[in-house]
User: Fold these one by one.
Assistant:
Number 1:
Amino acid sequence: MGKNNLLLLFVRNPELGKVKTRLAASVGPETALEVYIHLLQHTRQVTQALPMDKLVYYVGGVNKDDIWPNAIYQKREQVDGDLGQRMQAAFAAAYLEGYTSVVIIGSDCLQLTPEIILKAYEELETHDVVVGPALDGGYYLIGMNCLYPQLFQNKQWSTAHVFPETIQDLQRLKLSYALLPRLSDVDQVEDLDEELLRDFGL
């Protein structure tokens, strides 16, 4: 895999009352924090051995001594703005630094595997954009070979409209795109499988 590939990870610092707020409304902030830490650990496990540069973007300050090893992950703080503005800025910075294939993920998808992320870069060899749709109507991954700002603008973030609106943009811009398997993001208690419900006493 080329050295010009970059994986961006958008995360929040695991702080009580500041993560998984929709989930917290059902299970309480303490359990929501436990679930989020579990999600972060899963995302690290999935990504740490992958053969590309990796950059963790934080909301609310960079933590140099957390679960993300400094020898494997670069670390930066996200800019202010809505999710689209923050993602657009991260992609723009990556291309300015010479990366050519850039993929972004969050930390909400327990079904994500190393193979799916590698598949995203493989698809970027023959497509302009790759998208991993989520069951809730958003997406858990998006990647591209250069910046298409329109994909991050005029979106109703955290709603079921995000994925269909993104596909409409791709078609309007006449960009070639590939879709990855449709996976589940963990945002509400209904998104937790039976094993996790048992683990967290729910």
Note: The helical segments are 21-27, 29-47, 83-96, 114-123, 162-172, 194-199.
Number 2:
Amino acid sequence: MTRRGLVTFGESLAVFSTQSGKLRHASSVDVGIAGTEAVVAIGVARLGVPASWAGRVGADEPGALVLLRLRDEGVDTSAAMTDQHAPTGLMLKDYRTTDATRSAYYRSGSAGTRLCPEDIPEDRIRQAGVLHLSGLTPSLSDTAAKAVLAAVEVAREEGVPVSFDVNYRNALWEPQDATGVLLDLVSRADIVFAGVDEAAPLGFTGEPVRPEKLLSYLTGLGPEQVIVKLGPRGALAELHGCRYDVPTYPVRAIDSEGADDAFVAGYLADFLAGAPPDRRVRTAAACRAFAVSVHGDWEGLPDREELKQLARAR
């Protein structure tokens, strides 16, 4: 890893999905991987920036699948751990219509929930260009939450920028349990990504939630770069004291899974490449457009040449 690279860690899962209909009616399934930090790492690597993912997977075929797919995408997994005492988490997904998917998670007692401070790759974090974390990881377990905080401390001591995607999941914890942890991480981060649907667990009480108000609220907590994601309507950002309306790209959306992770990957890849703020947000929006155009969490993530093609097509 070079100083310019991305380091991230968290939960990765094996995914078994159908392209249409209920899983019970399927005669075959697609096999893949998921996990917000892993998707971001893949997106950054495809854009030509070094990326490293660390975490725990089980000593099983799903765990081997996770590591193999990440390595095939150019992500460094040498700091990942294989847990001999817990299985890799699973996600089962079916597509009811082109606009509706159903996902079932099997992660109780999984290797990913057993993340702990001893697992964090301290040396890699110290050498990183940015440490990226999400709010999903601390929701997995007390030890995973402690690991996230320990990683932030290592990064801050070394002057490594911290990127934090709120990524709140109400199926994993209640807003009142999440608020203190999320606000603490926002206040310690340099780059923050959040959605308007995450306002309540972030302690924002304005009704209705206006993106510009949420943006000001989060900026007031300390980070110099804040991006409020608005899905197909783009995003609103405040970067180094300047406001940006993030554009959208007119594409036919097929699957929105992984769209926010694609956005984050595009932004961080350009941040690490030294691009100016206006280019970072354009790249983020373009990556999201590619991601929603195909099925899957990460399969549609673009490389640099594809980004150029999209820009020429506008």
Note: DSSP finds nine helices and 14 strands in the chain.
Number 3:
Amino acid sequence: MDLPTTVWEKRPLRAGLYLVATPIGAARDITLRALDILASADVLAAEDTRTLRHLMEIHGVPLAGRSIVPCHDHNEGAAAGRLLRAVAEGKSVAYASEAGTPLVSDPGFVMAREAVAQDLPVIAAPGASAVLCALAVAGLPSDRFLFAGFAPPARAARRSFVGDLREVQATLVLYESPKRLAALLEDMVEVLGAGRQAAVCRELTKRFEEVRRGTLAELAAEFAAREVKGEVVVLVDRAEPARADTATWEEALDQAMVTLSVKDAAAMVAEAYGLPRREVYQVALSRGQGR
């Protein structure tokens, strides 16, 4: 491994809680600003102290006598109090997840929310996120998405969880254990439909990165027959817009045509109900001529 060529020195950093994103795979995906903060913060905290210590060693960031405070799912309530007292005393506290962005299925929410409640500064140092990496490579619409976190491990709860997402008009993004991936895909086929486009992203930014795209049925068949390892992100295309009952939108069209032209009324109703504009316009023309 190449030795770091930059010497990171402690620089003045204003008091606050700094949420530092760390790489999800490739160590070089960390930002220069994140390294500045890690070098300069008065207090360091991490979900996994060994991971942060190793990352700092890779990039030549000295601890300079500082210890790293553990702050994870099992102790966040107690650790948050200690860390926020430091912020209140005018110190800078840098918190890093084991990988990725704090709060995105990682600890940090309890501490960040309490900092906000105490009117203490909370500053984001953005960087790697498996959600955004997966959206970038999945080939699915990214203008609107819903990050749903992890599905429940029990089958009945998982199917109910997926059912709640059935009509969401946004690309669905979930994390999943490699051991439960096949079961999740099977349930998605049954609940969401076999033909929905989807993608399975595995080990993003790492040596064995893999992205598989296809319908839910195709992906379910593929992963049912293979062993999966590593971090997994599952993405599913948005639901098809539900078509309104014909009588409902035709009634709305009649009302719109009282005050609007045929063209404008058709355009408004088509947009409101997610219908083809030409189809609504033809109906508007026939109803207008009948008056």
Note: The chain has a mean pLDDT of 92.
Number 4:
Amino acid sequence: MTPAGRRAPLLSPIPAVLLAVVSVQGGAALAKGLFPAVGATGAAGLRLVLASVMLLAFFRPPLMRYTRAQWAAVIPYGLALGVMNLTYYLSIARIPLGLAVTLEFVGPFALAVVGSRRALDFLWVLFAAAGIVLITPWTARPDGLDPLGVVLALAAGACWAVYILVGGRLSRRVPEGEGVAAGMVFATLTVLPFALVGGHLERLTPGLFAASVGVALLSSALPYTLEMRALGQLSSRAFGILMSLEPAVAALAGWAFLREHLTPLQWLAVALVSFASAGATLTGKRPEPPVEA
């Protein structure tokens, strides 16, 4: 049991997950506000470094006592987490936050329905596919979406699917909080070279550093704590349905904090993918998802 698990929960599980979803997307909006100063890679590096410090201080994983089997679980998890964060931040630098999260959701959604032979699951695939078709920039119009941003968001979704798979193995070999803290170290090592080369960390000011601490807190430390508490009381199905709200919450966060306006068709795409994800969770056997760090 983690230290957080021994404390009396301040929130019941459903409000805790909803607050975690809002926290993650609010953190992403705050991070995007850092891009003009430190770049997407710089913001990703700062978030992971600071989140690593927070999680290591809180969970204190006994890294020196880990076995080879435990490291074999921690390292792939950290690599998947790092690449997922990097590609996601690079994508939201090019396309609206809500659309990036919608496209990213394709990864865990595909993992949820892969191998299924039930007709109902193919219906959810059609809903999700329709949403992706509505988002995809089929033309080269100046006001269209950046195709590279779309590809990067889909790449982040693929990393999310890998993250779920390797996270399941990690949870069986290392206590959850310790595993994420240790994995975050390798995520940081994966992204830091890109942050140092491609970011503009020399522009970092005390104000930007404080904002980066806020990003790490909102995007990693706070939602992780809330979701871990909720997962002890919610079924994976209920948790998955609540997480399906993320694309819509991301779109609202982009609109509220970044003035990113989606077209009616793009809002429809967000709704279709969220509906497909919730439907697949409700009617299928979904893999147990580690929280998005």
Note: Residues 1-8, 286-291 have pLDDT under 50 and may be disordered.
